[in-house]
Design a protein that fits this description.
The chain is mainly α. The protein has one domain. Helices cover 62% and strands 0% of the residues. α1 packs across α2. The longest helix has 26 residues.
Length: 104
């Protein structure tokens, strides 16, 4: 698919620009405070978002309160970091542990 981008030659007045910015601010406020607030916050966390039934159930439970949601995001982030660190250690040749394959 080819997308063509054109520059607009219609000048935007200061008032128009202010109105556009105001509209974006209103939409942003709605997304951050309305029914989508936890989705926006999770998206901003940068964490992966699986959509399997178990994960969706967890998201719903975590959305009971701001505190529950914060703990949930911290936990998911911690588990993601832990998984990455395990993969890094497993792939390093200079790190050994009693659990390394081939260790006697």
């Amino acid at each position: 698919m080819l997308i063509r981008i054109q520059q607009c030659s219609t000048p935007i007045t200061t008032k128009s620009y202010d109105d556009i910015c105001s509209l974006f601010d209103e939409v942003d406020l709605f997304l951050r405070s309305g029914p989508t607030k936890y989705g926006v916050r999770f998206a901003e966390s940068g964490l992966d978002l699986p959509f399997d039934a178990k994960s969706i159930s967890r998201y719903r439970s975590a959305s009971a309160s701001d505190e529950d949601f914060e703990r949930f995001v911290e936990y998911v982030g911690y588990m993601a970091d832990l998984s990455i660190n395990i993969l890094i250690v497993r792939n390093r040749k200079d790190v050994t542990s009693p659990y390394s394959p081939g260790r006697t």
